[in-house]
Specification:
FMN binding; 6 helices; about 190 residues; globular; binds flavin mononucleotide; oxidoreductase activity; Flavoprotein-like_sf; Rossmann fold; alpha/beta
């Protein structure tokens, strides 16, 4: 099913790390670029964006402008791609804090990530944490009622290096990340039409 070029649906990317150049964020950008080539509009919430989100307080009576912008983007999205580093065998606190904020959508007609394809990316400095981080992300997406897409990218940043131009030392990794963008794009219009 083709997307309408006059109003391209939105793919929101959530991921990265804080404090400097992030291979996780660069990996996410490659996947989002692939979705853009399929005609989608994209918006990325990277490390610097997630760092501005306060620790999620479910009882807070007001939300910051950054919190509101994040929730509004996910509400508007037709698909999401999440990229986390493996921190001590699981997803990072920064990424989890952003995902916790989606509790604000609990009472929406479409709560959380319901009915959305969700692409998943994990980086780690070794292989072991890539698998456990992908598994954790899949569990979280299921809890949020999203649909993890079939292929998830597990990237060992000890061996694969990313550059600022959207490339990586291993072309196979670039292809894997692009596949995530394409799989999300393939499924999102079908969901929106149902
Ligand atoms: C707090 C912390 C915990 C980490 N835990 C693991 C780990 O358990 N296994 C692993 O392989 N790498 C671990 N790493 C390494 C990161 O997962 C890895 O360097 C990742 O690619 C960083 O992504 P970035 O370049 O986007 O910052 C850890 C790094 C930090 C800072």
């Amino acid at each position: 099913m083709a997307v309408d070029p006059a109003s391209p649906p939105l793919v929101v990317g959530i991921g990265g790390t804080i404090g400097g150049i992030s291979s996780t964020e660069r990996a996410l950008r490659i996947a989002l670029d692939a979705a853009e080539r399929e005609g989608f509009h994209t918006r990325m919430f990277g490390g610097a964006d997630m760092a501005r989100l306060p620790l999620y307080d479910p009882r807070a009576t007001t939300r910051t402008a950054d919190e509101q912008a994040f929730v509004a983007a996910v509400r508007e999205a037709s698909a999401v791609i999440i990229a986390s580093p493996g921190y001590h065998g699981s997803i990072s606190g920064v990424v989890k804090n952003a995902l916790d904020l989606l509790e604000e959508t609990a009472k929406d007609d479409r709560p959380y990530l319901a009915d959305m394809p969700v692409g998943l990316i994990a980086t780690a400095y070794g292989w072991q944490a890539t698998g456990s981080t992908i598994a954790a992300l899949r569990s979280i997406v299921h809890a949020l009622r999203g649909w993890p897409t079939p292929f998830a990218a597990a990237i060992n940043t000890q061996v694969t290096k990313f550059d600022a131009e959207g490339g990586a030392s291993d072309p196979a990794v670039v292809e894997q990340l692009s596949m995530i963008g394409r799989q999300v794009a393939r499924f999102a219009p079908l969901v929106a039409a149902s």
